[in-house]
Amino acid sequence: MLNAQTIKRKAHDLGFDACGIAPAADLPELSFFGRWLDRGYAGEMGYLARSATRRADVRNVMPSARCVIVTATNYNTDRPYSTESQERDQAHIARYAWGDDYHDVLLERLDRLLAWMREVAGEPFEARTYVDTGPVQERVYAQHAGIGWIGKNSCVISPTLGSWTLLGEILCSLPLDIDQPAVDQCGTCMLCLEACPTQALVAPGVLDATRCISYLTIELRGPIPAPLQSSIGTHVYGCDVCQEVCPWNTVAPVSSDPVWQPRPIWERSKLTTLSSLSDQALEEALEGSAMSRARASGLRRNLLTASRNAQKACDG
Ligand code: B12
Ligand code: SF4
User: Fold this and answer.
1) Are 67 and 23 in contact (CB under 8 A)?
2) Tens digit of each residue's pLDDT (9 = 90 or more) over 278-307
3) What residue ranges line ligand 2, CB within 6 angstroms?
């Protein structure tokens, strides 16, 4: 039988750590997006503005959508945080990018979930699967699917999984039972805003992406703005600081799934080692990894900036 409960059970069997169902409705948090764009916080991520109308509501993407089945997958591994590192020459790479490309891994699992749903449903229905691949405000639907609340660092924080999770969803035309939204449990804590090396979190839950190290090292083409270069430290791809300091992650579970385990080349790697690789060797290392987004040229630019910062730290 196909219902909310059997879908969640199947999602769990397929390797998803959480699954909830949000309504395809006029959710209040969806309106933040337009205001965020108007303030220029998207920087050069022009695709976000171009798809703003569709991002405003999943029913603009799929008019028959009645609900959004949201999944969260824990990618945390037992390796130390960047904030714990004592080595000045260590290249910091965001945790989510250490293993296989999550788009491929999770889309394949979501497609299997959808194929199972079609088999069991006994009636035709419309559906679309996305993992960071469509014009959907994934965090808003995750909150309304009861997976976790949108924290002050703007990440979805689950009370049981913490925030080391990746989201994926199925827009669906079936009238499935909807979950209760998650309740905000950040309280008075401000650790993430205080810890951000570039002061990118301008207010609780509001990120100026143009200052975020993740944007500067992954999305931005061309040079990193001079005033922000030193604050990047030795982060060469993405940044995890605002999640590393989050108290909800102190007890975050660790995944044993082989796909998220760090590839040896990225494990506590040195700036000098990575910088010495040829473009071809870098491109090969990026294959099948979420980091292929930055390409060898992007990684090389970041390595140069990080190496200058490491040198300054040694001199100073
Ligand atoms: C663009 C983008 C980025 C940009 C901008 C991030 C941002 N915070 O806006 C950059 C490149 C900086 C980025 C960085 C990262 N990203 Co990103 N990113 C996205 C993407 C494609 C769109 C996000 C978006 O729409 N941003 C616009 C803002 C307005 O929307 P939002 O992030 O959902 O924001 C909520 C809060 O900002 C808050 N808010 C906004 N304005 C206001 C105003 C008030 C008053 C209040 C109270 C709240 C509030 O509510 C918003 C919802 O409406 C999503 C995938 C997707 N399609 O949703 C992944 C996604 C958000 N990213 C993800 C990840 C993993 C990351 C990084 C951790 C990667 C890394 N380690 O480097 C960092 C985290 C940085 C951070 N603190 O957010 C995951 C997050 C999973 C989770 N558990 O939350 C997602 C969902 C991808 C996925 N499928 O898993 N990302
Ligand atoms: S990911 Fe890093 S740079 Fe971006 S908001 Fe979080 S702490 Fe700041």
Assistant:
1) yes
2) 999 999 999 999 998 888 999 999 999 999
3) 153, 196-198, 200-201, 207, 212-214, 239, 241-242
